[in-house]
From TrEMBL, chain A:
The keyword Endoplasmic reticulum does not apply. Residues 27-54 are annotated as: Disordered. Pfam families: SBP_bac_8. InterPro entries: Bact_solute-bd_prot1, SBP. The keyword Membrane applies. Residues 1-20 form the signal peptide. SUPFAM superfamilies: Periplasmic binding protein-like II. This is Extracellular solute-binding protein. Keywords: Cell membrane, Lipoprotein, Membrane, Palmitate, Signal. It comes from Paenibacillus nanensis. It comes from the Bacteria. The lineage of its organism: Bacteria, Bacillati, Bacillota, Bacilli, Bacillales.
Length: 447, 286
């Protein structure tokens, strides 16, 4: 009797362990959308009115954690589930800053665990997913619903078109990156805004002398540093080529300029070991006068810094071919619909309806208002934006070119080789040429 | 053994065997297989023979990561094992409060490594870290604790601290197992203090020290969170754990990542064998 009870107990234990192992592999914050909020919201979906079968959809996106648009996104989902009580939406999220996000998406896509809607990057990151046929082209669905399609700004839809001429990702909000500067610190210290390279260098020296960090930027997560220094030296075309036709000598000039300002003391003392979050923190706390960041960062800064911030295009580097008005930006991510959801008769219509709801002008407006991004919808003007965001839109409208960032032009390994070489280059252990040749070798091997 | 027992033995061994197969042997052989491929993310792979291995032998960063791991291992063996042994001897010699000290010293083991690392970020931060604030208040200049010359040593401190308690408990348990007649005999012979510790206690727990050193060596190969959170592998702190993460998961180069995984396994086995050989002594039974 006692023995069999023991056996039973251990079996139970083993089963629990199996269950635990097979359980949630998401690991991230899963906020399930509210399910059955009784509401009198009007039916706005294309769902058939006769009691539809209940379905559960999974939306995987970056609208979680500290993302500025987290609440706006959740609200858009709640609106949808309120109007369509038979649909349950699982709002699965992970931070985009985290390298793990790409891994999670790739694991999901290859292991038969595709989310029904995926909010993911456009460019090299998505190429393999598109080529493997895991997501569907949206052109037919767009053409079938003129009202939905016409809600988008034509330029936004064009910018998400892939090389094969099809649209796979439905854009939501765009972004821009630039040199964010703390106007108050510039005024207080009598320094001119860095509108050209000489003024930029002068500002670096002036702030360094005052004990203020001139340019807050980390060397490991140096994405924005690399993007801007290379773009400012190589110009739009030189940057867009990536490393396809060998190393553009202007790329070397970009890295050399980074060393030049490093020698002037541009970066924080601990630039090598801080991460992007800490770099943003230095700027937000008023310890740093400038930072290279994206439009999404504005919402995270302290109220005082936010009010004193304006954004400028990164100045052209002398000897290069940049115009000084080249901007990194565009629509860097969008909603993909998985092939699995498309083929599943029970899910197809609900997924499309949800996608239409999330990308209708009202949803786009509220998300753009929250994250300060450029709305993808036509004629939508986000409200209550800080001056810095308006300055950003102005900067983009005056730009001579709007470029997608370098890491969408080269393979991930090539880009991290450049990243890993930033510190050796600025401290003089490697020349820019050596660093880029190393990256080139990786790029060639990956082909 | 009764004949019927065999059935139960198999039944109880099966879950563990299944777990090991699924989560250890299968991934290991899969890594071995993948190490012969050039992968592009998860989607496509091409057979490249020994390319990854030849790349491995000319990879400066991997060499540097190995050296940093060895340096960290030295700190861990000397300080982690050393401090644990010292604390165990001290606690073993006190009459009351053993339970209290055992709990206090063991406590950091329970805290997640990432949490400790984040704590030390706030200690070491150059701009507003605890250490630099204290220095400034005392009128000294700020120090970059994670500079190129100091980063690895600075990171070794939380690494050592985190697991001292674990080895301390192992040592303390080993010491409590020493039969008291040994000590009574020593007392009659008039041996006490340092002599008792070095001639009696330590030799009698030598086999445990050996186990702990092996654990420390293999444990150091897995160090990841302290480096990743505190320095992101910059300033001469890249270790094997962070390097493999960057290659396999950030770069999405699973082929080369798998090759490094194989290298780490071989490296770990060689080091443990070496440690066992160096510490070879006759087993003591009591």
């Amino acid at each position: 009797m006692k023995k069999s009870a023991l056996t039973l107990l251990s079996l139970l234990l083993v089963m629990t362990m199996f269950l635990a192992a097979c359980g949630n592999n998401g690991g991230s914050n899963n906020n399930s959308g509210s399910t059955n909020t009784p509401s009198s919201a009007p039916e706005e979906s294309t769902e058939p009115s006769k009691a539809p079968e209940p379905v559960e959809l999974r939306v995987f996106s970056t609208f979680g954690g500290t993302d500025a648009a987290r609440e706006a996104f959740q609200k858009a989902i709640d609106e949808f589930t309120a109007a369509n009580p038979h649909v349950k939406v699982k709002n699965d999220t992970m931070s985009a800053n985290d390298d793990g996000f790409r891994t999670k998406v790739n694991t999901d896509m290859t292991s038969g665990n595709e989310p029904d809607l995926l909010f993911y990057f456009i460019g090299t990151d998505a190429t393999e997913i598109i080529n493997s046929g895991k997501v569907v082209a949206m052109d037919e669905i767009l053409d079938a619903d003129a009202e939905w399609k016409n809600g988008f700004a034509p330029a936004a839809l064009e910018s998400v078109r892939t090389a094969d001429g099809k649209i796979y990702a439905i854009p939501l909000t765009g972004y821009y990156e630039g040199l964010f500067v703390n106007k108050k610190l510039f005024e207080e210290n009598g320094v001119e805004l860095p509108t050209d390279w000489e003024k930029f260098k002068a500002a670096v020296s002036a702030f360094k002398a005052k004990g203020i960090i001139p340019l807050s930027g980390p060397f490991d997560q140096s994405h924005y540093l690399i993007e801007h220094f290379v773009l400012a030296a190589a110009g739009a075309e030189g940057q867009a080529k990536g490393l396809k036709d060998g190393i553009d000598p202007n790329w070397e000039k970009g890295l050399a300029a980074m060393k030049e300002v490093y020698d002037l003391g541009a970066f924080p003392e601990d630039a090598a070991t801080i991460d992007l979050g800490m770099a943003g923190n230095y700027y937000s706390e008023g310890l740093a006068a400038m930072i290279l960041e994206g439009s999404w960062a504005i919402g995270g800064w302290s109220e005082e810094t936010k009010a004193n911030t304006t954004v400028l295009p990164f100045p052209a580097i002398p000897g290069g071919v940049g115009t000084g008005k080249d901007v990194v930006g565009g629509f860097g991510s969008g909603f993909y619909m998985s092939k699995a959801a498309y083929d599943d008769a029970a899910k197809k219509d609900a997924t499309i309806a949800l996608l239409k709801h999330l990308t209708n002008p009202a949803s786009i407006k509220s998300i753009a208002t929250a994250n300060g991004g450029t709305p993808a919808a036509a004629g939508v003007q986000p409200e209550g934006l800080p001056q810095a965001a308006l300055d950003g839109f102005k900067m983009v409208s005056e730009a001579t070119s709007i470029n997608s960032p370098i890491d969408s032009k080269v393979t991930p390994e090539t880009f991290s080789t450049i990243r890993a070489n930033i510190q050796p280059v600025v401290t003089g252990k490697k020349t820019p040429k050596e660093a880029l040749e190393e990256a080139m070798a990786i790029e060639t091997a990956a082909k | 053994m009764m004949k019927g027992d065999r059935k139960y033995i198999l039944m109880f061994l099966l879950p563990a065997a299944a777990f090991l197969t699924i989560f250890l042997y299968y991934p290991f052989f899969k890594s071995l297989y993948l190490s012969f491929f050039r992968t592009s993310g998860f989607y496509s792979k091409t057979f490249v023979g020994f390319d990854n291995y030849s790349r491995m032998f000319s990879d400066d960063l991997l060499g540097a990561a190995t050296l940093h791991t060895l340096e960290l291992m030295l700190y861990v063996i000397v300080f982690q094992v050393g401090i644990a042994l010292l604390l165990a001897i001290l606690v073993d010699n006190i009459k009351w409060g053993k339970g209290f000290f055992r709990m206090v010293f063991f406590f950091p083991v329970v805290i997640s490594g990432t949490a400790i690392a984040l704590l030390f970020v706030l200690f070491y931060n150059f701009q507003f870290g605890l250490l630099n604030t204290i220095l400034q208040d005392m009128g000294f200049n700020k120090v970059n604790w994670l500079s190129e010359s100091m980063a690895l040593k600075a990171i070794a401190i939380p690494t050592v601290w985190h697991y001292v308690g674990f080895y301390f408990v192992l040592f303390l348990t080993a010491m409590s197992k020493i039969p008291s007649d040994f000590y009574e005999a020593a007392k009659l012979e008039g041996i006490s203090g340092f002599k008792k510790t070095f001639l009696l206690t330590i030799p009698l727990i030598l086999s445990d020290i050996k186990v702990v050193i092996t654990l420390a060596i293999t444990g150091t190969l897995k160090v990841f969170e302290f480096i990743f959170v505190l320095s992101r592998g910059q300033n001469g702190t890249e270790v094997l754990g962070t390097y493999i993460y960057k290659k396999a998961l950030v770069d999405q180069n699973f082929g080369y990542g798998s090759t490094i995984a194989i290298y780490i396994v071989v490296f770990g086995v060689v080091l443990s064998l070496l440690a066992n050989r160096l510490l070879k002594r006759d087993e003591i039974t009591y």
